[in-house]
Amino acid sequence: MQRYFVEPSMRQGDVFHLPKDDAHHMKNVMRMEVGGEILVLDGTGLYRCRLEALDKQAASARIEETLPIETELPIRVTIAHGLPKGDKIELVAQKATELGMHHLRIFEADRSVSKWDQKKVPKKIERLEKIVKEAAEQSYRAHLPTVDFVAYDEVLQDASNYTACLVAYEESAKQGEASVLAMTLAGLQEGDSLLVVIGPEGGFAEAEIARLTDAGFKKAALGRRILRTETAPLYVLSAVSYHFELKG
Amino acid sequence: MQRYFVEPSMRQGDVFHLPKDDAHHMKNVMRMEVGGEILVLDGTGLYRCRLEALDKQAASARIEETLPIETELPIRVTIAHGLPKGDKIELVAQKATELGMHHLRIFEADRSVSKWDQKKVPKKIERLEKIVKEAAEQSYRAHLPTVDFVAYDEVLQDASNYTACLVAYEESAKQGEASVLAMTLAGLQEGDSLLVVIGPEGGFAEAEIARLTDAGFKKAALGRRILRTETAPLYVLSAVSYHFELKG
Prior knowledge:
By secondary structure, chain A is of the alpha/beta class. In chain A, 32% of the residues lie in helices and 25% in strands.
């Protein structure tokens, strides 16, 4: 059944009012008609709905059943990524969404070669949100991950809101560190939150690492190999899924 | 220290004779001179070597020390991937190499939209090998993953050479399957081998799945979400690393 992510404000009582682009998709891509069924996700729940109206401009769908959410990781994982080169952040947004990320924060690190012109940030975030939405619908996510662009200071200040905070650190991988990620996950329970900070190409500057450790972040290796910056979040999220969702 | 992958045939006694492109890299990119140190990997071992000769055409380096190999997964993982669309197989080759894949097999599945003209296969494999080599050097691999293009029959016939065989199956994810991957990894020991077969966009046809299960492959879910075809191998390899390399 086709899934549609909507804003919570689109719900009035038991009816969702869906916008033009969704109506277009239902009518012209899915060839749906009034009486057909869709799944609607509003960020808080997953609903089986029946179409009551559908034209070129809008659609309305009445909730028939609230369904259990079974496709979300039991812990909320935020990836804070030092802006990488080119369009790598788009790959991260798409793949990390498929793998269950809750929230993506992007910041300019000392060694970020790319810089985002402040004027262009809204457009860039909008594009990432579109990528995230498509990936969320395709991968059957119930939560639509959020994306923001923040200062490094804000990433640090926000750390106290998480149950645990890690930094992916390649020097730890070189030294054979092999317990921080697994120990951290073993200490988390359903409903907890995890913040993982990842550097850009070239990693973090020493001063950046010092501030992270001062703020209580633990340095974690992601296996024994040196991963590229855009591969690191995919490892973390796969490991979280494997740890919490699969049972040996 | 810079790493160079060479053919075993380039070794004579305790000296490696490196070709033109490596000599160029040492001389013009790394600005090295005779007497400098490099790491050489020949597929069987990792050696610290000292440069004895270096010009535009070639370089020779004498082995000073055999180093322990610490960056390989304890089990050998082969990914057999149904040819996906566009250049996605390049992303798989690069990222799966970073994550420790041993061998990549590519086959045309029933639902593969892309087809490879048999005449162009050598060029395509050569390009993938170049991507794999760069990723292996960057990620500190000791083994250079191999790549081949084979018939689906050959993937099935070769299955008996592996300790365990899995197929990543999205229907299993939808049904909440949650133990096959973890149980399989729990049953493997250092030195064992694992074959994971992954379908193209649209997944496997029913007849293909039937042949896999007849051949003893187990259907494994990779978490609770529906992953795109190119994300599945990255999940598997991250899970293998997490399971075997990190300790809680």
